[in-house]
């Protein structure tokens, strides 16, 4: 027993020393990623929103995330939460963010002694000091009781992984597979398990001759938010490198020794081995949404053997290649951790859905040929993530657009939030902005006619029962929401209060998306469409109340909702995740018009001051992510520079509770990256960026334009804690006279130089 404990201690010390020595010798970009940042739930408890991230192992944009499971996930809880102190499994997961659901998941848990199958019964304690968390490797030491330890490790690719478990001496060491987890105790307002339990059954099969367990999981945690998908299954193949000595299946608390098959709603299988002290047992696990045969193909392509260390190295090399697209110089180690962890978070979603030339579509419940992505958090990510990917992942942009168009062709509408089926989460059709922005910036390797038809449908064709249904947040078993209230928006000029939920936010965001569609119409020479769409993009003005100075709900008869401006309005009053302050500056598509509406530059700047000084700005809420940059448009860019420094510092930290806000599939991270680079994409499809203030002395971005390698070096001369104000900006030696720069100019240049100083340059505006 003492030898076993000593073995673990020595192994841990050796690996730790090796890791530290490596870092001292040459620390690469990948070595700065800390996948624990953003995982605590404390952010939610403190009213800051938690990061909602997970310590995922796998390749960039992996179809499946492999991670330790510290709790039973549901909409509102991720599978790993930093405050938890027990691990109940090692999970193949597809949950994209805390407020969306997992689907087609499966887990494996090591154990010794008495067999315990249910998640909380089988959970084993751990300490964070015993974790190693990297994008390409995870390990933890579990307390198996009686001074016995089990070490668990993960190495992974995109659809397949190897789990490695180091056991103590045990007559019966178990590996418990859970194939589905429909736990009625997880039910709440956001999680309706009634229909899922009634309709669904998972399946597992133990094959002792092949030394494997196979099966499928038809569960989609967010199924209540979308269409029924009879053919949906998450298939899995789980193989062991040690011969199975005994086995069985389980269903809830009932264990069936020697059973080879099991169907059920909360069930799985187990295998047993006798192990020596320090013996390693490896598990190859592969996933597919197409078939069991495809899961085997994925396994052989991604993990062709049992070489755990080789898989760690190959995945690490790919992460290093991708992260090194941006190089930093003169930057403190702590800031590098924040930056490259943010980069890591921008390389998770949308996730790959295709499997070597084929993919299952949740938009028609069929298998197709081609490339596909899913889990687009579009209400969040159209703002900064997708514009960032144009620089950091140009080789993926066309495929991501094409995937959206496939959903349109197979389901009849562009998605709002595919998980993997449409869920109608959030509001408006921001796929319009993503597609139009990509098109305007030169990404056109897809069917442009189909793309434009999809965008035009969003702008002109209301959803079914548009005048009858309120389309409230998270309505169950509802068809495509698209732009609910569009019938009124395109006739009377706004979404009226009392008919359609979240009417104010919808009016503002529909107008913004109309601008994106208008820009694509203009580029395609569709003049009549362009004029109509541009006119609709001004519809937000119909909800501006000159008395209160806010955009507020308006009834169908043209009268405003009466309220005290000192009172906060909410979702019930027509707003999405916010109040009248949250959406006061939301018309990103018509900033000059918004400034005129509020009385000109000085009065507009004063309202911005009131917003920030009055603590109305919440960085954890995406509608305000562009507000900091609006001072650029009203003649006071130095205030943008102050706020960029404040919010890139205050809201991002190199510790577990390191993100003041839900990461939202990379949006928070993308905002940070643009913030420290010194420019931000305020208006989708405009082809323009607002200039902020760089936060690093030197940053070099390696990217592509039309397949050709390009380099943009951003230098901040004299940057310091005091020198946070921009004195002048040059691009390849030419002075930039105003705090705006076009995408064409930026990508046509090579060196962007900021001269920084301790006081605002109020002549540069």
Shape type: globular
Please name the fourth-level CATH homologous superfamily of the largest domain.
GH92 mannosidase domain
Distance between termini?
72 Å
CATH class of the largest domain: Alpha Beta
**How much helix is in the residues?**
25-40%
Structural class: alpha+beta
Low-pLDDT stretches are 1-24
Question: What's the topology here?
Answer:
Layout (H helix, E strand, L loop, with lengths): L1 H24 L16 H4 L19 E5 L16 E2 L1 E5 L12 E7 L6 H4 L1 E2 L6 E2 L4 E8 L2 E9 L3 E8 L2 E12 L12 H6 L2 E6 L4 E6 L16 E7 L5 E6 L2 E4 L3 E4 L1 E10 L3 E10 L3 H11 L5 H16 L2 E4 L3 H13 L5 E2 L5 E4 L4 E4 L3 E2 L3 H4 L3 H8 L1 H18 L19 H10 L7 H13 L25 H4 L13 H21 L3 H10 L7 E2 L4 E2 L39 H7 L3 H13 L23 H14 L16 H11 L1 E2 L7 E4 L6 E8 L2 E10 L7 E7 L2 E2 L4 E3 H6 L2 E7 L8
Parallel strand pairs: 29-33
Antiparallel strand pairs: 1-3, 2-5, 3-4, 4-10, 6-7, 7-8, 8-9, 9-18, 10-17, 11-12, 11-16, 12-13, 13-18, 14-15, 14-17, 19-28, 20-23, 21-22, 24-25, 26-27, 27-32, 28-29, 30-31, 30-33
Helix pairs in contact: 7-19, 10-11, 11-12, 11-14, 12-14, 14-15
């Amino acid at each position: 027993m003492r030898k076993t404990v000593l073995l673990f201690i020595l192994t841990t010390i050796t690996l730790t020393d090796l890791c530290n020595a490596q870092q001292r010798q040459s620390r690469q970009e990948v070595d700065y990623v800390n996948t624990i940042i953003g995982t605590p739930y404390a952010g939610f408890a403190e009213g800051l929103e938690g990061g909602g991230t997970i310590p995922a192992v796998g390749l960039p944009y992996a179809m499946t995330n492999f991670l330790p499971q510290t709790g039973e996930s549901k909409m509102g809880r991720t599978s790993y939460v930093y405050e938890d102190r027990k691990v109940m499994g090692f999970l193949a997961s597809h949950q994209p963010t805390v407020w969306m659901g997992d689907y087609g998941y499966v887990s494996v848990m090591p154990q010794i002694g008495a067999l315990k199958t249910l998640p909380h019964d089988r959970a084993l304690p751990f300490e964070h000091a015993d974790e190693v968390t990297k994008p390409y490797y995870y390990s933890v030491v579990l307390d198996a009781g009686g001074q016995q330890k089990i070490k668990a490790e993960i190495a992974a690719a995109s659809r397949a992984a190897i789990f490695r478990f180091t056991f103590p001496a045990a007559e019966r060491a178990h590996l418990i597979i859970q194939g589905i987890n429909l736990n009625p105790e997880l039910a709440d307002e956001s999680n309706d398990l009634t229909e899922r339990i009634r309709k669904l059954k998972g399946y597992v099969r133990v094959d002792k001759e092949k030394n494997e367990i196979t099966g499928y999981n038809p569960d989609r945690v967010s199924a209540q938010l979308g269409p029924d998908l009879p053919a949906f299954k998450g298939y899995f193949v789980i193989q062991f490198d040690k011969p199975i000595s005994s086995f069985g299946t389980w269903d809830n608390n009932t264990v069936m020794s020697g059973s080879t098959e099991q169907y059920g709603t909360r069930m799985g299988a187990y295998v047993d081995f006798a192990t020596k002290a320090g013996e390693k047992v490896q598990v190859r696990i592969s996933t597919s949404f197409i078939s069991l045969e495809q899961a085997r193909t994925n396994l052989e392509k991604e993990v062709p053997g049992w070489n755990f260390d080789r898989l760690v190295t190959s995945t690490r090399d790919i992460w290093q290649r991708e992260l090194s697209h941006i190089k930093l110089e003169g930057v403190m180690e702590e800031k590098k951790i924040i930056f490259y962890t943010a980069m890591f978070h921008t390389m998770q979603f949308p996730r790959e859905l295709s499997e070597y030339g084929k993919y299952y579509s949740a938009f028609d419940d069929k298998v197709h040929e081609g490339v596909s992505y899913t889990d687009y958090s579009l209400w969040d990510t159209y703002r900064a993530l997708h514009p960032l990917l144009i620089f950091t992942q140009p080789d993926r942009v066309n495929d991501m657009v094409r995937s959206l168009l496939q959903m349109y062709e197979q389901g009849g509408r562009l998605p709002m939030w595919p998980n993997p089926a449409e869920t109608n989460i959030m509001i408006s059709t921001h796929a319009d902005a993503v597609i139009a922005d990509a098109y305007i910036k030169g990404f056109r390797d897809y069917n442009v006619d189909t793309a434009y038809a999809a965008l035009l449908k969003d702008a002109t064709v209301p959803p079914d029962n548009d005048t009858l249904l309120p389309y409230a947040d998270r309505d169950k078993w509802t068809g495509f929401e698209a732009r609910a209230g569009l019938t009124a928006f395109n006739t009377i000029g706004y979404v009226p209060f009392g008919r359609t939920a979240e009417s104010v936010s919808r009016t503002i965001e529909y107008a913004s998306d109309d601008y994106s569609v208008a820009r694509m119409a203009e580029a395609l020479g569709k003049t009549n469409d362009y004029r109509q769409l541009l006119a609709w993009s001004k519809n937000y003005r119909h909800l501006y109340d000159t008395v209160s100075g806010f955009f507020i709900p308006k009834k169908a008869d043209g009268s405003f909702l009466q309220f005290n401006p000192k009172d906060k309005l909410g979702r019930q009053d027509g707003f999405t995740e916010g109040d009248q302050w949250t959406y006061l500056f939301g018309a990103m598509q018509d900033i000059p018009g918004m400034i005129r509406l509020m009385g000109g530059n000085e009065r507009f700047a004063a309202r911005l001051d009131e917003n920030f000084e009055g603590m109305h700005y919440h960085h954890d809420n995406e509608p305000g992510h562009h507000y900091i940059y609006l001072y650029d448009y009203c003649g006071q860019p130095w205030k943008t520079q102050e706020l960029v420094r404040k919010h890139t510092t205050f809201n991002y930290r190199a510790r577990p509770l390191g993100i003041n806000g839900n990461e939202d599939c990379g949006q928070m991270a993308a905002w940070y990256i643009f913030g420290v680079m010194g420019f931000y994409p305020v208006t989708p499809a405009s082809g323009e960026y607002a200039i902020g203030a760089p936060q690093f002395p030197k940053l070099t971005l390696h990217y592509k334009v039309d397949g050709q390698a390009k380099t943009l070096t951003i230098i901040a001369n004299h940057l310091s804690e005091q020198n946070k104000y921009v004195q002048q900006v040059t691009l390849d030696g030419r002075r930039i006279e105003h705090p705006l720069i076009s995408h064409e100019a930026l990508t046509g240049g090579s060196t962007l130089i900021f001269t920084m100083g301790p006081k605002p340059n109020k002549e540069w505006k």
